[in-house]
Write a structure and sequence with these properties.
Blueprint (H helix, E strand, L loop, with lengths): L1 H25 L3 E5 L3 H13 L6 E5 L1 H9 L6 E3 L3 H9 L9 E5 L2 E6 L22 E4 L5 H12 L3 H4 L3 E4 L2 H9 L5 E5 H4 L5 E6 L9 E6 L5 H10 L2 H9 L3 E2 L3
Length: 256
């Protein structure tokens, strides 16, 4: 009888271990990602689910906000930032697995206007951009939100920052800036090309030269202690099937 009880205990322990392992494997990957990645990652999450995995739980927002949440211990398995600065912030806090970090994607910065109020503009020094439209210019919060950081750099490069500074509306993320321009609440906006292309209510007025701002890079990394399922999902994001989706949504490849 003691032997039978011992065997039963061992069997129960083995079942418990395998049960927990199976449950862990079936748990969805928790992804914190920059708002500009919304459409592409939603599509890729559907592909991942169709391949037999639990659909990832996707949380989108400004990279600055998400980075602070990850730093504070938010339950994320993977963080995708729209710039290196906020990934560096999380890395310094010891919250990511450094070896997993990769510069996955790139993007382009564009000037947009409401479709029925489009104007002509040349993005070069001396072009007097501030005189080309009326009202406010919407972009991410300068100095905080990645698109706002890039926008400030680009507008400064073309000599328009000082003239426009009092007219700039800084938003929580790039999708909010896009929405303001769509509604006509801002006469112009600076967003990523990938965001402009999803809207039928705005028109791209001009594209900022690549050398007018720091390279737009999307670093992606696993958080510390991320499960194997998260590592598999990151490998999927780096693979050829995901690359086709990202390219179709207008992203470019990241740094080599």
């Amino acid at each position: 009888m003691p032997l039978l009880r011992c065997c039963a205990c061992v069997l129960f322990a083995l079942l418990s271990v395998f049960g927990v392992g199976q449950a862990r494997a079936d748990e969805p990957v928790r992804v914190f990602a920059a708002a500009s990645l919304t459409n592409a990652l939603e599509e890729l999450a559907t592909q991942w689910q169709a391949a037999g995995h639990a659909r990832p739980v996707l949380a989108f927002g400004a990279s600055s906000t998400l980075a602070k949440q990850v730093e504070a211990g938010a339950p994320a398995d993977l963080f995708a930032s729209a710039d290196q600065k906020w990934m560096d912030h999380v890395a310094k806090a010891g919250r990511i697995a450094p070896e997993s970090r990769v510069a996955l994607l790139g993007n382009t910065l564009v000037l947009i206007a409401p479709r029925n109020r489009a104007f002509k503009a040349t993005l070069r020094e001396g072009a007097a951009l501030a005189t080309r439209f009326r009202g406010k210019l919407c972009t991410g919060e300068p100095g905080v939100v990645p698109v706002g950081i890039y926008a400030q750099q680009a507008l400064t490069h073309v000599g328009a920052w000082d003239a426009l500074q009092g007219r700039i509306v800084g938003t929580d993320d790039v999708r909010t800036a896009l929405a303001f321009v769509e509604r006509g609440e801002c006469g112009a906006g600076v967003v990523y090309a990938t965001d402009a292309r999803i809207s039928q209510k705005v028109r791209v007025v001009a594209t900022f030269p690549a050398d007018s701002h720091a390279p737009i890079v999307y670093p992606v990394a696993l958080t510390r202690d991320a499960p194997a399922q998260a590592r598999a999902f990151l490998a999927f994001l780096r693979g050829p099937a995901a690359a086709k989706v990202f390219l179709r949504h207008g992203f470019t490849r990241g740094l080599p």
